[in-house]
Amino acid sequence: MSDKPVLPCTAVLRHVTDVHCHPTDSPLVLTDDELHRLEITICPMATRIADQSQVRDLARAHPKNVVPCFGHHPWFSHHISVDGRTAKEAHYRQLFSPKAEQEEIFERLLALLPEPTPLEQILSTLRNDLQTFPNAMLGEVGIDRTFRVAMDYFANPRQLTPFTIPLEHQLTVLEAQIDLAVELGRNISLHSVKTQQVTMELINRMAKKHGERWTNISLDMHSCGLSPQTWLQLEKAHPNVFLSLSTAINGRSPNLKKLIATCAPERILVESDLDDIRLCTERTWAMVLIIAEVKGWAVEKEWADDVPISDSGVVRRLEGNWKGFQRGRHKHAVKQNRAARKADEDFHSEGSEE
Ligand SMILES: [Zn+2]
User: Fold this and answer.
1) Cα 153 from Cα 255, distance rounded (Å)
2) 175 in a domain, yes or no?
3) What is the pLDDT of residue 252?
4) Which PANTHER family match (predicted)?
5) Considering its fold, how many domains does the chain have in total?
């Protein structure tokens, strides 16, 4: 999967969007040159208190091909106080519940952790950013069951502590951010790791809670790790949920091709999930080629306007999906379409095993 693909011409690349990446995490200084050379559109994700301003700056400097994404990642959700408890030690002690034998490591970690920031303050900055950039999305937000808090997240190698962030805490931080995105009509890039059931329940709950305002926005399951069966349930129940795939995360999954085959053609997006801006185009394109292969779609070598959807290649189809994602206002499929889809699903689930 790490083979370097041959890139198409600029006229084709201009229609490609990397829907999830992390250029502000790169140790490389983002030079204007690198960004000016960028031919695709990127969606840089913010993840924590310190990097919201970096995404802001990036979007201001490159409004043409940057869709800024603001939000707080579950890996940094412990920095946020959700219950008004802002005394540092009490906050982290309550979250991590250190056992007696973990006291020493807790003390060492505590010294390195920031003062907790109240959720209301997080939300007010987030509201500001989303309102300042009318095309901005919420991201990267989510839930993660495998993550363990590192002694120093930025150390290399990272030394992991035994502490995890309780799922209820992650969910409180996530739901508050989702509620804001729904209120402002903004799309979401969601991280979900080893939490299939909880994620399904969350999305069902959001749909119920927000009704039509929920289907007015779109939700992207970023580097989607769901099983093809779970994806299918989600796709059927929620017309506003998309999935995006990266070679970085999905590349080695034995489920990748099955997932692509299972996914409705209009719900797939592509991403790199990378920090290094110099690799975003190449890695996003590698996933475009995999999708083209599995779906049997042609790969555009040049760009022609006014091509009917039936003759569309992979780039035009994925571009259409991205436009549909951005537009939102999704409708539940009518019964007839469901029956047609069911037949298609049966076909895929029988025929696409690797
Ligand atoms: Zn990410």
Assistant:
1) 30
2) yes
3) 87
4) CUT9-INTERACTING PROTEIN SCN1
5) 1
CATH number, residue 182: 3.20.20.140
C-alpha 281 to ligand 1 mean position (Å): 16
CA distances from 141 to 161, 181, 189, 283, 325 (A): 22, 11, 7, 22, 17
Which of 3, 2, 10 lies closest to 301 in space, CA to CA? 10
d(CA 66, CA 10): 17
- DSSP secondary structure letter of residue 77: G
Which structural domain range is residue 16 located in? 10-351
Residue 191 Cα, ligand 1 centroid: separation in angstroms?
Answer: 7
Compute the distance from residue 183 Cα to the ligand 1 centre, in Å.
24
* Percentage, residues of the chain above pLDDT 70: 92
pLDDT: is 318 or 336 the higher one?
318
Q: How far is the CA of 343 from the centre of ligand 1 (A)?
A: 34
96 Cα: distance to centroid of ligand 1 (angstroms): 24
Does residue 55 contact residue 69 with C-beta atoms inside 8 Å? yes
Measure 220 CA to ligand 1 centroid, in angstroms.
Answer: 12
Asked if residue 5 is part of any domain, the answer here is no
Ligand 1 centre distance from Cα of residue 140 (Å): 6
Cα of 73 vs centre of ligand 1, distance in Å, is: 9
C-alpha 68 to ligand 1 mean position (Å): 13
Parallel/antiparallel/unpaired status of strands 69-70 and 137-144: parallel
- 311 belongs to a structural domain: yes
For tokens 């019964």, name the residue. 335
Do 59 and 133 contact (CB within 8 A), yes or no? Answer: yes
Binned at pLDDT 50, 70 and 90, residue 343 comes out as: low
Report yes or no on 224 lying in a domain.
yes
Distance 141 CA to ligand 1 centre (A): 9
Q: How far, in Å, is the centroid of ligand 1 from the Cα of 20?
A: 6
How far is the centre of ligand 1, averaged over its atoms, from the C-alpha of 212 (Å)? 28
pLDDT number for residue 333: 77
